[in-house]
Structures are given as C-alpha cells and as structure tokens.
Amino acid sequence: MSESSPKPHAAPRGELYGLLGEFEEVTAVVAAAKVFRDEGFTEWDVHSPFPIHGIDKAMGAKPTILPWLVLIGGVLGLIAGIVLSWWTNAVNYPYLISGKPQWSFAANVPVIFETTVLFAAFTAGLGMLVLNKLPLLYHPLFKSRRFRRVTSDRFFIVIEAHDPKFDLARVKDLLKASGAKGIEEIFEDL
Fold first, then answer.
1. Are 14 and 184 in contact (CB under 8 A)?
2. Of 22, 13, 26, 80, nearest to 54 (Cα)?
3. Stretches in the chain below the pLDDT threshold 70
4. What is the pTM of this model?
C-alpha cells in the first residue's frame, strides 16, 4: 500500500455495554440466571420469547412497587368520586326532591366505584410504562443480529458492563460454563 492511499480500519466502536449470552433451552437460561444471581451480579437481565415460570426467583428479582401505586391511585379515585358526587349534587346544583337528602352515599356508589377503577387503571398503565422506562426507542441490543432471535426461539442473558462485579474474562467464563451457545460483546453507539 502506498502512503497516500487510505488504510482500511475497523468501524469505530463505542463503550462496551455488556456481554450477551445465547441459550437454546429454557432450563439452561434459568440455570445460568441462578449462577449470576449467586455470583452477586446486579445489572443484568434475561430475555425470552415467552414468559418463563420461576425466572424472577432464579434472578433474585425484588418485588415491584406498582401494586402500592395502584392502591394509592384507587384511594385517590375513591376520594375524587366522593368529592365529585358531593360537589355536583349538594353544592353546585342542589336539587330538592320530596325532602330527600342533598347528597347520599348509597345513591352515588356507582360514580364512586367508577372513579376508583378509572384512577387505579390509569395508575397501573402509566406506572408500568414509567417503571419499565418505556417507550424504549433505542437499546444497544437492537444492533445485535444474534439478539433478533429472542422473539422466536432463543434465550439470552445480558450482563451489563457497569455492574460492579463485571470482569470481561470472568463473565465470558461464567457464560461458557453455564452452557451459552454463543457470546457477543455489545457496544454503545458513539
């Protein structure tokens, strides 16, 4: 090559995001998840084409706060329903009929129930989106050709590089020992 011609070079890579381990069977990925849980890794995830029974326990996943958020949303809906029905019937537009009370709880149970369900449902939907950081428009795994099979017939474990226990050689060895059929380094975009 002459000095004036450009030298071929590899495409620039960003920072290492993590290691992707590919598994062919559910039992293998569950066993590997237990290994990484027992090793003390905290920044990792399992990807599967369908829900795997017991994977949360195998990963050591902590319970979510979503049920508590839904309870708070439901209680706020209950209060909103009571205030709404009281305000509209007794304050804003009082309507006297045959000496009946301006506002009665029993007459407004359907409204109170519906606002409770409405607030709880919206809290569940929005809380799920926020807690799962959705919508996720980009992720480094989206560039991996190997990872595309996660929607059909493969199972994956991703160990993120910013995990305190992450050591490239050690994680590769753990993935191989756990039965990973393929291991790929995933990089962030520049």
1. no
2. 26
3. 1-12, 190
4. 0.77
